[in-house]
Amino acid sequence: MAKRGNNEGSIRRRKDGRWEARLQVGWKDDGKPDVKYRYAKTRREVAGKLDILKQEIALGKVTDGDKMYFTAWTRRAYDIFKKPTIKPATQEVYEATIRHFDGSVIDVPLKDLTTSTIQLFLNQKAAKYSRQTVRRMRTMIGWSLRKAVQERYIIYNPFEGTALPKCNTENEREVIALTLDDTKKLLDYAEKNNKKSEAMIIALTLTLLKTGMRIGEALALNASDVSGDAINIDKTLRYTNNEFVTSTAKTQNSVRVVPYPDSLKRYLKIWEITKKENRLVFGSDWSGEDYYFCTETGRPLYARNVLRAYRRLLKRAGIEDVDKYCLHSLRHTFATRLWELGVQPSTAAQLLGHDVVTMLKHYTEVGEQFKVDAINKLDAII
Asked: What is the pTM of this model?
C-alpha cells in the first residue's frame, strides 16, 4: 500500500474490532498536535467519515482559528519553525518584531483577521517607524499567516492584497561616513595621544576604520586572529539574553582575511602592551577568556559601552555633533573611501565581506556615484 502523505489521515483497526480514522487538523495551545478521530464498524464506513472530515476542514469547520489569536500563533510558529534555524542576533530582530503585534488591531482570533485590518495596522506603524521596520513587520505577518493556512487554522490568507505603505522618513536612521575633516581630526588626536586609558578604544576605532570590519566581528577576535599583517575574520560576538554569544560569521562571504596597513600596527602594539600590563596588575582577577579587544580585566566588551567610549573619543578629537556617527559609520567610511580611490567593486566587496550586489544595495550613494563615473568615462570615448 502506498504511504499516505501529509494531511491525508490514517486508518487502522482497533483491538475492540472497530475501525478508527485519524487526521491532524492543527496544533493545540500546548504545542501538541490537534488530532481528530472518527470511528465505524467497517473500513469502508470509516473511510467515508474521513472524507467528510477532510471536506469539513476545507470549509473551515474543524479548525481552531476562532480560538487562536494572531500574536499567540505567530510566537508559536516562530518557536517551532523559525527560531531553531536562525542565529541569536536574528532571533532578537524577529522577537522584537513580534512584540509590535501585542495588543494591536491585528491581535484578534485568526478567523477574524481581515486584509483591511492588516493594512490598517501597517498604516499605523508607518506613521511612527522607518520603512525597514515596517517592511520587517509585514514580512513576518505574511510568513505567519502562510503557516496558519498550512496548519489549517484558516482556509485563506488575509495577508494577500496588503501593501507596504509610505513610511515616516523622519524615523529613517541614515548611516553616514565620517567627513575627511573629521577623519583627520580623529587620526591627529590618536597620533598625539599616549594615554593608556584610551589605548583600547583608539586601537579598536582605528581597526574598524582601516579594515571595514563590523563591530561584532572585531569584538569576537582572539589573539590568534591578529597576525603581523592581516586579520582573520570568521565569527561574531553579540550580547543577547543576558549572555555573550559567539557565532559563525554573518554569511559565507563574511569569512575573510583582511590585511591591515602599517599605520595601524603602532596602535595595536600599544594596546597589546597595555593589555599585558593590565594582566599583571589584576592577577587572579584577570579573565581567562582570549578576546583581543577586551576590558581592563580581559572580559568581552559590550557594544553599547564601546559606542559610548567611541563618541567620547570623537569629542576629545574636536569633532562636533558626534551623535550622527555610529560605530557602523567607520565601516561606511572605509567603503566610501575605497570607492573614491577607484577600487574595483569586487575587491571592495571582498574586503567588506559582501557580495557585490549586496554591497551596492547597502551603500547606495556609493553605487550611484559608481554609475555616474562609469557613464562619464564612457562618454569620454564615444
From this structure: 0.66
